[in-house]
């Protein structure tokens, strides 16, 4: 399938290809209608017939790598035809990647020291819906949610898409693009025009960005909105698959340019690709280490949340009528990296992760490892400390008694949790994943646990299951509702169909779309737990409280 997409991106007769592809898809959907119910706004149409209609203006915040990026100033050694060319998102990205990789690489990289634009280059996010509703014409992201909202009366005046350069740190997003200033102004404008508070819908890394923004908007060091700004302007937050406590794969991407997707190619095939590919492991590492956003996604909370060399608070989900599909292997420890003895005695867990990276990244430029990733019993003390705002364990929620926070996420899909490393003298950097290692819960050098295929369960669910229900981190008693969604993909659908819980494809899930439309229309949804996140969260909370 991928080869067809590459062919299409390089072939001038794209219209013919698209017509054939659309015909194939339409014919398939006519035979297998089960996985196309959410298409064409069917959920919104049903709810409109039951009396649901536009109520609150909606702000959509996409996740990591979800916003298209385009060139506004190209490097002097690259073609002048790159102006306004998308180097991320759309088919033109593939063309730029395969026809002139060096120029593509230059424009996707940031300055190592500042985390901002390299000299002589400007790459900016594509505006509005065209920037994030779909990755390209074959891969939807927010389209289904937008279509269903449209069926109950929404349009471009009542939906705002926040597009942003996901490579940048939160601080640099405001310094370079004034992202948070613009967003605060937009929210205030929507409230003024429609006389209704907004509903935020954020996906994955977008929820981390949203939580940072809310602290920024209140603070005198940021938007100067004051303690009542959120309660005045925000009706609800819909957190969709939020990577709230980080993801282990950010560690592997920074360390070796690898993750589950590359390791599962297998050892021999991986070596061949390294030899022939225009994008080698070294190049991936060099590129990823310029994206300061990846450092924001490193696991938060230390060993108390993620475990250490000898223990972990996570446990297999109990089996039962509603849980038989959950993938829940036992975890005997919380290591992110098992480094083989022939390479170094350097097993990595959440407690020593940052020191390990600091040693590995010495001489690599200014890396944003000075942010805090701990836990605070008195988060109110950090209200005006920007270095803490990215960490929901060290800051409290806004004082907003009328706010409701919903957490929707999938469970039941194997999710990368740790990595087995070996030495490779041929590689510039010290460690590579040992793709030949397959034991117990390890597959091709990657260890899996419960989650949505990208974010582990502990990161998806801990805050809404426990921490945000405590007065220290939720001072106004904002209502917290967790709604887990079982991963039940349809076997014939390449994206899983209406009932997938996959990290990205959940955006097309029937249950999620129905819930989001209801919330936007002023209704609510019920709490729904499938996994054992509640008991895990109690164990994590005890560990955190006793660690102080």
Structure description:
It is a single chain. Helix content is 35%, strand content 14%. It is α/β, with parallel strands linked by helices. The protein folds into two domains: 1-31, no CATH class; 32-68 and 126-547, no CATH class. The strands form four sheets. A six-stranded parallel β-sheet has the order 7-1-8-9-11-16, sandwiched between helices. Strands 10, 12, 13, 14 and 15 form a five-stranded mixed β-sheet that branches. A three-stranded antiparallel β-sheet has the order 3-2-4. A hairpin with a 7-residue loop joins strand 12 and strand 13 (431-433). Mean pLDDT is 84; it is low at 1-35, 261-276 and 316-329.
Describe the structure concisely for a colleague.
With 548 residues, the protein is of the alpha/beta class. 35% of the residues lie in helices and 14% in strands.
The number of strands is 16
In this structure, how is the largest beta sheet organized?
Answer: 6 strands, parallel
Q: Helix fraction?
A: 25-40%
Are there runs of 5+ residues with pLDDT below 50, and where?
Answer: 1-35, 261-276, 316-329
Oligomer kind:
single chain
Separation, N- and C-terminal Cα atoms = 52 Å
Using only C-alpha atoms, the radius of gyration works out to 23 Å
Shape: globular
Main-sheet strand order equals 7-1-8-9-11-16
Mean of pLDDT: 84
Number of domains: 2
Query: Which class of secondary structure composition applies to the elements?
Result: alpha/beta
How many separate helices?
21
The amount of beta strand, in percent, is 5-15%
Give the helix/strand layout:
Blueprint: H1 2-10, H2 14-31, H3 42-49, E1 58-61, E2 69-73, E3 86-88, H4 91-99, H5 101-108, E4 122-125, H6 128-132, E5 134-136, E6 139-140, H7 143-150, E7 159-161, H8 170-177, H9 179-194, E8 198-203, H10 205-218, H11 229-233, E9 234-240, H12 248-256, H13 260-263, H14 267-276, H15 281-288, H16 293-296, H17 303-306, E10 337-339, H18 353-360, E11 404-411, E12 415-423, E13 431-433, E14 442-443, E15 446-449, H19 457-465, E16 479-486, H20 510-520, H21 533-547
Parallel strand pairs: 1-7, 1-8, 8-9, 9-11, 10-12, 11-16
Antiparallel strand pairs: 2-3, 2-4, 5-6, 12-13, 12-15, 14-15
């Amino acid at each position: 399938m991928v080869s067809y997409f590459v062919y299409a991106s390089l072939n001038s007769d794209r219209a013919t290809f698209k017509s054939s592809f659309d015909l194939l898809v339409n014919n398939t959907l006519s035979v297998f209608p089960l996985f196309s119910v959410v298409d064409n706004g069917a959920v919104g149409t049903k709810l409109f017939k039951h009396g649901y209609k536009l109520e609150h203006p909606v702000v959509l915040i996409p996740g990591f790598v979800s916003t298209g990026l385009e060139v506004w100033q190209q490097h002097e050694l690259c073609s002048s035809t790159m102006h306004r060319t998308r180097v991320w998102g759309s088919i033109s990205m593939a063309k730029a990647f395969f026809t002139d990789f060096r120029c593509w690489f230059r424009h996707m990289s940031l300055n190592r020291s500042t985390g901002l634009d390299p000299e002589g280059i400007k790459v900016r996010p594509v505006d509005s819906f065209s920037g994030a509703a779909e990755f390209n014409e074959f891969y939807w992201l927010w389209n289904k949610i937008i279509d269903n909202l449209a069926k109950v009366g929404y349009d471009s005046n009542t939906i705002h898409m926040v597009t942003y350069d996901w490579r940048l740190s939160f601080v640099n997003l405001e310094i370079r693009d004034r992202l948070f200033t613009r967003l605060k102004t937009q929210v205030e404008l929507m409230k003024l025009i429609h006389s209704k508070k907004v509903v935020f819908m954020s996906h994955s890394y977008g929820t981390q960005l949203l939580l940072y923004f809310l602290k920024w908007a209140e603070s005198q060091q940021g938007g100067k909105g004051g303690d009542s700004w959120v309660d005045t302007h925000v009706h609800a937050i819909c957190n969709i698959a939020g990577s709230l406590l980080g993801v282990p794969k950010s560690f592997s991407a920074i360390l070796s340019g690898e993750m589950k997707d590359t390791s599962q190619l297998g050892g021999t095939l991986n070596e061949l690709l390294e030899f022939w590919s225009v994008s080698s492991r070294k190049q991936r590492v060099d590129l990823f280490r310029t994206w300061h956003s990846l450092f924001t996604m490193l696991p938060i909370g230390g060993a108390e949340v993620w475990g250490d060399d000898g223990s972990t608070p996570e446990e297999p989900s109990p089996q039962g009528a509603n849980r038989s599909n959950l993938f829940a292997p036992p975890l005997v420890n919380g290591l992110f990296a098992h480094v083989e003895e022939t390479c170094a005695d350097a097993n990595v867990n959440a407690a020593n992760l940052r020191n390990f990276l600091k040693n590995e990244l010495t001489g690599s430029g200014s890396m944003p490892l000075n942010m805090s990733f701990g836990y605070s019993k008195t988060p109110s003390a950090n209200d005006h400390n920007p270095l803490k705002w990215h960490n929901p364990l060290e800051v409290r929620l806004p004082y907003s008694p009328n706010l409701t926070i919903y957490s929707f996420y999938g469970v039941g899909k194997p999710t990368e949790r740790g990595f087995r490393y070996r030495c490779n003298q041929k590689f510039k950097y010290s460690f590579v994943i040992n793709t030949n290692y397959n034991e117990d819960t390890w597959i091709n050098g990657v260890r899996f646990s419960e989650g949505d295929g990208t974010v582990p369960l502990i990161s998806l669910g801990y805050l809404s299951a426990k921490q945000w229900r405590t007065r220290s981190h939720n001072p106004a008693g904002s209502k917290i509702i967790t709604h887990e969604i079982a991963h039940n993909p349809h076997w014939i659908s390449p994206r899983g169909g209406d009932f997938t819980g996959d990290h990205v494809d959940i955006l097309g899930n029937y249950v999620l779309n129905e819930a989001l439309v209801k919330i936007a229309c002023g209704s609510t949804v019920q709490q729904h737990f499938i996994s054992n996140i509640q008991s895990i969260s109690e164990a994590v909370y005890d560990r955190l409280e006793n660690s102080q």
